[in-house]
Amino acid sequence: MTTHEKHQIVVLGAGYAGLAAAQRLARRLYQDEVAITLVAASPEFVERPRLHQAATGQSIRAMALADLVAGLALTLRIARVRSVDADAHRLVFDDGAVLPYDTLVLAAGSRIAADTVPGAAAHTVRLDDRGAAAGAARRLGELASSSGRVVVCGGGLTGLEIASEVADRWPALDVRMVSGSEPGGWLSAAARTHLVAALDALGVVRTVGRVAQVEPDALVLADGERVEFDLCFWAGGFAPSPLVAASGVAVDAAGRARVDTTMRSTSHPDVWVVGDAAAVAGPWGDSLAMGCRTGAFTAAPAAESVVAALTGGRPRSVRFRYWHECLSLGRRSGLVQLLRADGTPKEQILTGRTAIVYKNVVLDSARLLFRHPSPWVARRRHLRAPEAVASSAERIAS
């Protein structure tokens, strides 16, 4: 590295994992030695666990990314990325602009997978961002006056929360869940009992069956049954951003980047991957479940591993255990399933308003940490030798 060029660190993605990683890097490294750029598609932090509330017209207090990084030595760039080239060390934006990097923290996240069933992408709503939630809220408001039919595809946490929220907010609507297995089937017996009672009380009808095709106004199930709708939410699980596999880094069968225990790519040593984009193996299996409850815990180890690589320190391995699953069932009730370290359910649960308060405390704690990241971290100097961490300018020149 020359005295005129800084080491360029790019963090792609400003979700729970990407934002936390960027904040930590900015507090651990000196700005006269590194330049950190945080790239985000939206100027606001997206709280995905609250999008089902926004979809029913509730006001969710927005958090501007500019406020969350104010005072930190990093540049926030709001732009959509067309491609990542891990071999050429660069990002290409939708407008054709190119951003080179020396070190990349890939936090591209995940999306609701809708490309495995014909018609799902074209005819359903996926709550991936605030824009989709706002559009759904407008449509639900229109349907409420005519007792419209709302179908939610998927029996996981996302599907359960959407169906419950819609039924609670708009009791005149006909709300139905369609899923390949019984909704919440992985929960403990006590939790399943409570869930069934809550869904029945909200009037949410459940249909178990595999969706073979989605038409503009109906689902076609594998047995030929048609389930008509006026609005359909798709909550059929998550898939990593396609940017990950297309970048050239080694990925698993699901398209998540293969990383070691320090979140470093197994194929590209100048790339670290965090959050849903990464497949990190451990006592939990080949990869962590996707979601903010797991992804955020990969940010600190990855950031510390980057710092170690640049300063000659010791990298930090990710440590994680499962604690709970927090599920809101409308605004008046909820369910918290306590988990063993490996993610299997205990019989202990929290229900009702206690569960709602519990979940809000968890989500609000993340808000608090992002607004007030820990100041008790020491900066490190002395970047390693130029041949080990060459700057982007030198790499391009060579």
Question: What does this 3D model show about the protein?
Answer:
The protein has 398 residues and is an alpha/beta fold. The protein has two domains: 1-112 and 238-320, FAD/NAD(P)-binding domain (3-Layer(bba) Sandwich), CATH 3.50.50.60; 120-234, FAD/NAD(P)-binding domain. It is 29% helix and 25% strand. The strands form eight sheets. Strands 5-2-1-9-20 form a five-stranded parallel beta sheet, with helices on one face. Helix 1 (16-28) packs parallel to helix 10. It starts with 6 loop residues before the first strand and ends with a helix.
Give structural attributes.
single chain; alpha/beta; 398 residues; FAD/NAD(P)-binding domain; globular; five-stranded parallel β-sheet; 2 domains; four-stranded parallel β-sheet; 25% strand
| Distance separating the two termini | 13 Å
Number of domains: 2
Helix content bin: 25-40%
- What's the level 1 CATH class of the largest domain? Alpha Beta
Radius of gyration: 22 Å
